Structures are given as C-alpha cells and as structure tokens.
Amino acid sequence: MIALGSDHGGFELKKEIIRYLEKNGYEYKDFGCYTEDATDYPVYAKLVGRAVASGECEKGILTCGTGIGIAIAANRISGIRAAVCTDCFTAQATREHNDANVLALGGRVVGVGLALKITETFLTTEFSEGERHIRRIRQIEDRQGGEA
Predict the structure, then answer these.
(1) Total-model pTM
(2) Which position has the higher pLDDT, 118 or 146?
(3) Pairing assessment for the beta strands 82-84 and 59-64 based on DSSP bridges
(4) For 71-85, what is each residue's pLDDT tens digit?
(5) Bridge partners of 60?
(6) Active-site annotation holds for 33
(7) Do 93 and 49 touch, CB atoms closer than 8 A?
(8) Is 64 a catalytic residue?
C-alpha cells in the first residue's frame, strides 16, 4: 500500500499520481489534503510518515509546491527516509543507495509527465547496493550522530 499526502501546492499533482496508481493496480491510502484550500504541509507529511514508519503502508509519496518542506517534515519521523526527486536518476539512486521509503515531489517544479516517470522509477526500484549502503543507512538512523 502506498501512502499519499499533499498540501494545496501539490494537490493537483497528487490527483495525477492517484490516476497513475489506479491505472497500474497499486493500492493506496490518501491522507489528504482534499482541496486546493491553503493548508499546512507538516500535517500531511506526519500522517504519511507515521503510516510508512509503522508498516501500515510500504512506501509514501508526498507533494507540495517544491517537495522540500514536506520532505523535511517527513524526515523528522524516525524510520523515514524521504527524498526530493526531480528526475528518474535521483529516484533510482535514492532507492538503490538510501532505501528511501518516501518520495517527495514539487507540484510547481516537476511537470506531470516527468513526475509520473519519477513515481514509476521510485516504486519499481529495489534497494540493492549492499553492505556499504546498509552501514550508511544505520548511521543516518542513529539519532546520536554515528561516526564523524
């Protein structure tokens, strides 16, 4: 199951992503927002982040105007590795190297066609880069800082 969330700046892009998910047989849960009325992105980042961190959902996709604020808010939740992606290479790399579990996209930055290709890349790429990346992920998750 894919957790979805957006603020007003990412609302239209989220609707396009929902169409893509439905067309391709993905199950999803939409945590809001549900209109273009101004709203606060941390609310939806936290809802999606908690759903992914708890295992309720396998991955998450967040959209706001740039993808940046909503990713920062999601990354405050333990176990979340949210990545802002603006191309397919970064979507592939963040899955392979960082085992990112939340994709963040900017509705005012990335066009719909590219956003859907990024989404597909993110959802279909497996974490596969071995021990050096596992070591780095552990260091990221160590809230005390790990090695310097």
Answers:
(1) 0.92
(2) 118
(3) unpaired
(4) 999 999 999 999 999
(5) 3, 102
(6) no
(7) no
(8) yes
Q: How far apart are CA 116 and CA 38, in angstroms?
A: 24
Alpha carbon 15 to chain centroid, angstroms: 15
Torsions phi, psi for 127 (to 5 deg): -70, 120
**CA end-to-end span of the chain:** 36
Q: State the catalytic residue, choosing from 33, 57, 85, 97.
A: 97
The catalytic position among 8, 33, 57, 64 is 64
Three-class DSSP labels, the chain: CEEEEECHHHHHHHHHHHHHHHHCCCCEEECCCCCCCCCCHHHHHHHHHHHHHHCCCCEEEEEECCCHHHHHHHCCCCCCCEEECCCHHHHHHHHHHHCCCEEEEECCCCCHHHHHHHHHHHHHCCCCCCHHHHHHHHHHHCCCCCCC
How far apart are the C-alpha atoms of 73 and 41, rounded to whole Å?
8
147 pLDDT higher than 60: no
